[in-house]
C-alpha cells in the first residue's frame, strides 16, 4: 500500500525520475542517518520522495528526511539541502510492508543531476528494505557518444538554475544538459549516531556502503509527456560485470536520450523470490505503481533456467506480465535470454529451455517489441556462449563492451 503525503502536487504530469527495486537486506540500523546518492533522469518541479518498508517486519520511523545536490562524496552543494515533509510533518512512520510518498519539494530539479537523499531512522529497524549492489559511477559514461550531450560546463547548484530549464536534448523533450565530468562516488553513506540529515558537510558520514536505504523512487512533474522506460531484470540489468560500473540500462539512457529506470535485482528470478520479489510480482507491486512509465523492458529468466525452471512456466509468466502491463497502458519489450554456457549453473536442459524461451520471445507475438540480447552477445562460433570480448570472465555477466552491445540492441519508442 502506498500512502501519499497530504500536500498537493504542482500542475502537470507526474513522472518517475529515479527508481530502484526493493530487496530485503540484513542490516539492522538504529538511530543513524543514511545518505543515498542517486542521479535523476528527468528534470522537473515538485520533487517527491518515495520511501518503502516493503520487507520490514515492523513499522519504521523516519525522524527527518532531506534532499540536496551532491557535491563530492557525502558532501552537498552549500545551500541546496531541503527538508522533505509527509502530510506537512517532518517525521513519518511507515508500517510493515508499506510505502510512503512525500509532499512536493518546492522548486525545480535538473535532469541527470546527482542528488543526495538523507534519511534519519529514529529508533531501530528490524529488516532494511533497500537495493543491494548500488552504484554511483563516473558520469558521463566513458563509452557514451559525445554527441549525446551539450558542450561541457558546470551545472549550478541551485535547484532553479538556468540549466534546469534549458539544454534539452533533441527529440527527448525532457533531459537538461549534463554538467562537467563527475567521478565515481559511493552510492550511500552511513553516519555517526544521530540525526545528520540536514548536514551539508560530510564530517558525520563515516561509512560508505553499496546499498540504497529505503529509497525506491523520486518523482517530478513535467509540463509535457516524457518517455520513461523501466528496465525490469536481474544482475545484468543491475550492471554486474561492467568494469566501468555502467550497465546496459545506464548506457541506453544516453544512446536513446530517454529516461531509463533501473529496476534490476541481483540474483532475481521471474518465478521465485530471492532478496526481492519475483519479477512477475515486482512488475505489479513496484514498477507499475510508479508514475509516468510508458515502457517496460523485461530482461529476466536466466537465473530461473539455472535453477531448473521449465520453459513453459517462464513463457506463461511472461504472458501474464505482458497482460498486466497492457492493462495499465504500458508497452513491454521482451529481452531474449543471453548465453551462459560455462557458468556454474549451466546445463544441457537449461540450454534447451533457453532456446525454447527465446523462440517464444522472438516469435510468440506476446511482446510489443523484442530486444535480442542473445543475438547481440553470443559467439557465432559457439552460440551457447558469450562472445569472449563480451564476457566479464564468469561466462554469465557481460563486460562493459557487452553492456554497450546490449544497449545498442534496443530502440525505445517515444513518449505517449
Short descriptors:
disordered N terminus; alpha+beta; 416 residues; eight-stranded antiparallel beta sheet; 8 helices; six-stranded mixed beta sheet
Descriptive account of the structure:
The protein is an alpha+beta fold and 416 residues long. Strands 4, 6, 7, 8, 9, 12, 14 and 15 form an eight-stranded antiparallel sheet that branches. A hairpin with a 2-residue loop joins strand 6 and strand 7. The chain is globular and about 55 Å long.
Short description:
The protein has 416 residues and is α+β, with helices and mostly antiparallel strands. It has 8 helices and 24 strands.
What percent of the residues sit in helical stretches (DSSP H or I)? 10-25%
- Fraction in beta strands: 25-35%
Distance between the termini: 27 Å
From the alpha carbons, calculate the radius of gyration and give it in angstroms: 20 Å
Largest sheet: 8 strands, antiparallel
Basic shape: globular
Mean of residue pLDDT values = 88
* Poorly predicted runs of 5 or more residues: 1-10, 144-178
SS element count, helices: 8
Category from helices, strands and their pairing: alpha+beta
Strand runs, count: 24
Amino acid at each position: 500500500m502506498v500512502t501519499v503525503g497530504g500536500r498537493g502536487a504542482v500542475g502537470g504530469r507526474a513522472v518517475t525520475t529515479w527508481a530502484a527495486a526493493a530487496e530485503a537486506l540484513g542490516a539492522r540500523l538504529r538511530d543513524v542517518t543514511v545518505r543515498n546518492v542517486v542521479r535523476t533522469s528527468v528534470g522537473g518541479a515538485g520533487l517527491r520522495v518515495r520511501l518503502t518498508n516493503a520487507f520490514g517486519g515492523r513499522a519504521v520511523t523516519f525522524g527527518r528526511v532531506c534532499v540536496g545536490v551532491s557535491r563530492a562524496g557525502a558532501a552537498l552543494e552549500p545551500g541546496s539541502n531541503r527538508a522533505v515533509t509527509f502530510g506537512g510533518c517532518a517525521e513519518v512512520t511507515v508500517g510493515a510492508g508499506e510505502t510512503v510518498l512525500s509532499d512536493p519539494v518546492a522548486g525545480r530539479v535538473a535532469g541527470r543531476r546527482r542528488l543526495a537523499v538523507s534519511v534519519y531512522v529514529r529508533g531501530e529497524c528490524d529488516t532494511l528494505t533497500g537495493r543491494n549492489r548500488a552504484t554511483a559511477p563516473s558520469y558521463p559514461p566513458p563509452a557514451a557518444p559525445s554527441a549525446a550531450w551539450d558542450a561541457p560546463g558546470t551545472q549550478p547548484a541551485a535547484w532553479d538554475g538556468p540549466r534546469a530549464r534549458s539544454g534539452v536534448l533533441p527529440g527527448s523533450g525532457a533531459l537538461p544538459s549534463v554538467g562537467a565530468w563527475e567521478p565515481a562516488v559511493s552510492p550511500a553513506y552511513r553516519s555517526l549516531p544521530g540525526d545528520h540529515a540536514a548536514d551539508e558537510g560530510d564530517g558525520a558520514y563515516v561509512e560508505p556502503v553499496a546499498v540504497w536505504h529505503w529509497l525506491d523512487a523520486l518523482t517530478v512533474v513535467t509540463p509535457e509527456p516524457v518517455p520513461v522506460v523501466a528496465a525490469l531484470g536481474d544482475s545484468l540489468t543491475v550492471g554486474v560485470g561492467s568494469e566501468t560500473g555502467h550497465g546496459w540500462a545506464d548506457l541506453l539512457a544516453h544512446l536513446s536520450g530517454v529516461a531509463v529506470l533501473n529496476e534490476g535485482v541481483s540474483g532475481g528470478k521471474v518465478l521465485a523470490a530471492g532478496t526481492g520479489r519475483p519479477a512477475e510480482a515486482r512488475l505489479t507491486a513496484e514498477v507499475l505503481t510508479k508514475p509516468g512509465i510508458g515502457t517496460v523492458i523485461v530482461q529476466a529468466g536466466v537465473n530461473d533456467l539455472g535453477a531448473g525452471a521449465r520453459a513453459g512456466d517462464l513463457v506463461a509468466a511472461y504472458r501474464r506480465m505482458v497482460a498486466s502491463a497492457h492493462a495499465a497502458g504500458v508497452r513491454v519489450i521482451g529481452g531474449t535470454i543471453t548465453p551462459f554456457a560455462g557458468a556454474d549453473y549451466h546445463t544441457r536442459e537449461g540450454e534447451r529451455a533457453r532456446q525454447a524461451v527465446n523462440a517464444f520471445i522472438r516469435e510468440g507475438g506476446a511482446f510489443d517489441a523484442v530486444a535480442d540480447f542473445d543475438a547481440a552477445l553470443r559467439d557465432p562460433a559457439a552460440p551457447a556462449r558469450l562472445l569472449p570480448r563480451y564476457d566479464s570472465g564468469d561466462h554469465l555477466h557481460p563486460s562493459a563492451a557487452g553492456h554497450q552491445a546490449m544497449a545498442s540492441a534496443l530502440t525505445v519508442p517515444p513518449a505517449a
